[in-house]
Amino acid sequence: MSRGSRVHRAGLKLTTSMAVLIGLATPAAVRAQSGDNRIVAPGGYHDLVESRNDPNTPVIQMRGDADMPSIELVGDARREGLCSNPFASDSGLSSATIFFQHTHSTSSSTRSPLPPEGSSDEGGDKADGYPNSTTAVVRVSRPDLGRRIYYKNKIEFSLDGGWLPINIPFVFDVFLGDGYTMTNLRYTLVPIVASVRWQVDDVGGPWVFRGNWDIEASAAVTLIPRGPESRYIAWIMGFRRNFVPRRGRIAPYFDGRLGLGNIDAKEPLGVLYAQGQDFTFTMNMGSGVRYNFNSRYSISAGLNWMHISNLYLSEPKFANYGINVYGPMFGVNVRLGRLGHRRSE
User: Fold this and answer.
1) How far is CA 239 from CA 156, 293, 306, in A?
2) 21: phi > 0 → left, psi -120 to 50 → alpha, else beta; which?
3) Which residue among 37, 92, 181, 272 is least enclosed by CB atoms within 10 Å?
4) Residue 304 burial by CB count (10 A; 0-12/13-18/19+): exposed, middle or buried?
5) Domain range for residue 131?
6) 341 assigned to some structural domain
7) In the Cβ-directed half-sphere of 122, how many Cα atoms lie within 13 Å?
């Protein structure tokens, strides 16, 4: 082999080794079974996704020019597909151990399965079933699905609807010195709430408290099928705490919101225990779970408590009885804008 060829070969090895170190977003330990050949992903490669017997275990073949070695990546992958760069942290790979095959032959001959981890290549330049090849194992941490869905500055639109037929006393009466009493008038509220949510931080916190915060602004139209009034329109703002697991698509949440609105009050028209004036305040608290299909779309279900009153502004002319109901809420959430998740843990 001429000196120029050796220099060219050494340069190719150095360039490609640097590329794979930069391309991997998570710490990786590479164990090569041949000291002369390292598994690399140089620039200029393109990927071709194939499938073996199991559709959940695709094979990615990285191929370049005729004089460049091909690379095979075999590992579990998310059904949603893989990114164009499988070495990026958001590639969707879910396997903790990924096998790379570095071969000097670009022929498509039938090969035996990849050798198991820990096997050795005593021949130095050949592995069983892979002539003229070397094998390495690249270890990567499994991607944190929660960080792909919940991250700082993510903006979402949500549309929620509920059925709140259960009447209860005002839950904070204990702090006002009032008894937990109720009138004979019963309400059923049907809120329809359109919201914009801004996630103000990244996922953090220990154990079951791991999650992030939303700030939300909402416009609500509430129908009143049971009760003397017929509708309620409100502007609401508040917060939501998302409890984000590392694995899985279900995330619990808790939220609290305050707002002001307008109701067609009927107590001034002589209806006993109805609302004393049109201008009112509202308070909402809810909790539930959210199922994330992916980073863009999700649905939610939970319970919501809703309070409406005029904060005694109608007194002494008209009493402030208020409305206190709770029931189930269901919602659809859609991410606005492009994906902008964090690329590191």
Assistant:
1) 13, 23, 15
2) alpha
3) 181
4) buried
5) 3-142
6) no
7) 0
Amino acid residing at 57? T
pTM for the full model? Answer: 0.62
Query: For the chain, how many structural domains are there in total?
Result: 2
Half-sphere exposure in the Cβ direction for 321 (13 Å, CA)? 23
- Same domain for 112 and 227, yes or no, is no
Same domain, 197 and 242: yes
Which range is least confidently modeled, 51-55, 73-77, 284-288, 340-344? 73-77
Residue at 343 is within a domain:
no
Q: Which DSSP symbol is given to 269?
A: G
CB 341 within 8 A of CB 147: yes
At 174 the three-state DSSP class reads helix
DSSP code for 272: T
Question: What 8-state DSSP symbol labels residue 145?
Answer: H
